[in-house]
Amino acid sequence: MKVAYYPGCSLDTTGIEFRLSTAWCASKVGLDLWELPGWNCCGASSAHAKDHLLSLALPARNLALAEKEGMDVAVPCAACYSRFKTVEAEVRQDEKIQQRVAEAIDMDYHAANNTKSLLEVFVDGVGLERIESDVVKPLNGLKVACYYGCYLVRPAKLGHFDRAEDPQSMDGLISSLGGTPVDWPHKTECCGAGQITLSPDDGLPLAYEILRVAEICGAECLVTACPMCLMNLDLHQLTVNKKYKTNFNLPVFYFTELMALSFGASPKEIGLNRHFVDALPLVEGISKREKVEEKA
């Protein structure tokens, strides 16, 4: 299976673990990710606050590169995904916008192709049966809070691949890896996004609530599909603990990291040692569970 691939800015910087684990998983399941040549920043999360045409033109140029090749585009970052879906919808609905965007990027673009979340590509494109067949180190009941965040499934009018209020795709993926997705109510709550940095008093309470509810519901870790969400819940977990005098110690994974681990990747190969909340003891614990089960 071949699909155009837009890594976006984060996967070479704060989200490099996402890039490493994505490449590892793709090679295992026969997914050919063709990286768009000369791709550019999609403008998230500031272009739409500055200029509407700019906010459409930036993601449209990337989509146009793939449209030339007759290919859909896989997008890892949820914020990038949202910007791509937005221009895709607006160009299809308004011919004048289509013309203005095409003029701005100096390239034909008619939204003939589709933006797909990387999660969608793995779950619906590769398929859970194929993924499950490649599992060699199952998660053995690891209790996981699947965190989708705001952008991956909302707004519903953009035609996202999963339900807006109670999405299930990541839950199904975790189950196929041998884990146990916990039932919890904060799957799509906002993590605070850039407000955690710009206005901590507004952003930190949102991250705190997600961590608090995940722990109450019995989660041993969280899993997400967004570099911003992971950064806020991983990096800023220490800040949350200091502010609220809590002792959260919940590792946060990209879904591709848990996939890669279950496929047999070592933590170092996929950059797991780069996380701020140490995930290695939990990963080692999964191995111990395996040994106990084997002896039993």
Q: Could you please describe the fold and organization of this structure?
A:
By secondary structure, the protein is an alpha/beta fold. 50% of the residues lie in helices and 9% in strands. The protein has 13 helices and eight strands. A four-stranded parallel β-sheet has the order 2-1-3-4, with helices on both faces. Strand 5 (143-146), helix 7 and strand 6 (180-181) form a beta-alpha-beta unit. The chain is globular, with a radius of gyration of 19 Å.
List the helices and strands and how they pair.
Elements: E1 2-5, H1 16-29, E2 32-35, H2 47-50, H3 52-68, E3 73-75, H4 78-93, H5 95-105, E4 115-117, H6 118-133, E5 143-146, H7 169-176, E6 180-181, H8 195-198, H9 200-216, E7 221-224, H10 227-234, H11 237-244, E8 252-254, H12 255-262, H13 280-295
Parallel strand pairs: 1-2, 1-3, 3-4, 5-6, 5-7, 7-8
Helix pairs in contact: 1-12, 3-4, 3-5, 4-5, 6-7, 9-11
